[in-house]
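Two proteins, back to back. First:
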Amino acid sequence: MNDIIVSAQEPILLVGGAHGDNAQLLSLLDEVKTVVAADSGADWLRSVGRLPDALIGDLDSVSAATRAAIPSQSVHLISEQDSTDFDKALRSISAPLIIGIGFLGGQVDHLLAAMTVLARHSDRAVVLVGEKDVVAHLPPQITLPVSPGTRVSLFPMRSVMGTSTGLHWPIDGLELSPGARVGTSNRADGPVSLTVYGPGLLVILPVSERRGLEQALMRSDGRWPAL
C-alpha cells in the first residue's frame, strides 16, 4: 500500500488508458474539478486538451511527451509490479466518489483486471463508465432509482447472498458465485433495493443510469472493508 496522494471532498474523475469516446470524456470533465490519470490515461486527457491534476502509476505506458508536459510535482511513480495502474491510482485517492473512465474498453484481460480491483477495494465508492454500461461494487444496502424495464445485472466476484425488492427475478435465498449462479440480465419492475450479506457483488447498469447510481452510492450507509 501507499499513502493517499489526491484527496477531495467532491467526486474525482480517474482516467485510464483504454481510450474511448472523446465526447463522453469531455462531458465527464465538465462535471468534476479534480482529474487523475492512471498511467497512459494522461495521453487520452492530453489528446482532448486537458492535463491531469495528478498522474499515478508505474508510468511504463504514458508517452514521454505527455509526461514532460505534466508538472513534476504532479507525477507520482509507484514502481511495484504486483498491481495494475488502476489499483495503484484507486488506493491513492480519497474522495466520496471516484468516477472511472477508460477501464471498460480495450483488452478483455484489462477489463477483467478492473473488475477484480473493484472487488478488492470494496471500501470505496467507484463507478466505472463505459460507452454502454456502468459498473460499481455494491455496498451493504442500496436503492437504485431505476425505471421499470431497466436492465439490472448482478455479477458476483465471490460467493455472496442477499435480498432484493423491485427486481423481476428476486435474489432472496440464492447463492450467487462466479462458478455457478450469476445474476446477469435481470430487469427492474421499478426502483430496486438491495441488501447484500458480504462484499464481492458488482452491479452493471445501462450508462443512462450513471447519475442515479452515483447518487445512490453516495447516499448508501456504509462500505465493506477492503478485501
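And the second protein:
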Amino acid sequence: MSGRLLLIGIGCGDPEHLTLRAARAIAELDVLFVVTKGRGPDDELVGLRRELVRRHRPPGAPLREVELADPPRPWRTAPDYAEAVATWRAGRAALWRAALADITDGRTGGFLVWGDPSLYESTLAVVQEVREGLALELEVIPGVSSVHALTARHAIPLNRVGGAVQIMPARRLAAHGMPDDVDDVVVMLDPDCAFTTLDPDGLDIHWGAFVGTPDELLLAGPLAQTGPRIVSARAAAKARKGWMFDLYLLRRR
C-alpha cells in the first residue's frame, strides 16, 4: 500500500492564519519531517511548528518526528551561484529520498511549510524530484503567503486595476532594477537592502519583517525617505534576534 505525503502551508507566523484544511491535515499525520538548519531562527521556527502540532492533534495521538539536517547553504559567498544551489539541492534530495522511502503501508507523512508551499519555497520542488520511484501520494495544502500577509497588514491591494505584479528575488532587482513594464514589484530574499541601489524618484515602498509574529515590523512611504529608516530598523532587528525574514512591495506612483 502506498503512503501519503502532505505539504502543509502554515502561513508566516500567525497561528490563526492556519486554514481549516491545514489543521485537519496536521491531525492526520503519522510522521512529521522537520528540516533543521542549525542556526539562529532554527529553534524559533521549529518551535512554532511543534506548537501548531500540539494545538491541532488529539491529545496523546502518536506522532513520529524525523529531523532532516539541511546541507550548508554557501551560495552567498560561492563564485558560481547556480552551481552552489545545485550542489545544495542534490544534498538535500539525497537525504530526503532516504527518509521518504519509509512512508509506506498507508501511513501519512508531512512537512509544515512556512508560508505557502508554491511561492519561493523549495520544499515542493525537492519533493517532486525525489518522489519518483516512491509509492507516495502527494497533496499540497496552500497556506497564507508572506506576500499576502504583507499587503494585508499594510491594508493595500497587491495589484492595481489593469496592472501586472512581479515577484522577484533581490539578486534580480540589484542586477536589473525595476522592470520597465511593471509598476508593482514584490522583492524577497534581500539580505543587502537592494532597494538602496534604485533611483527612488516616484517609488513607494511597503516593507515588513517577521510579518505575522509578535516581532512584526512595518514601514511604508516614499522610498527616498523610508528606505533609510528600513535599513536602520532592519539592522537593529537582526542584531537583536540574530536573523531576519523580510520582504517588500515597490510601487511606482
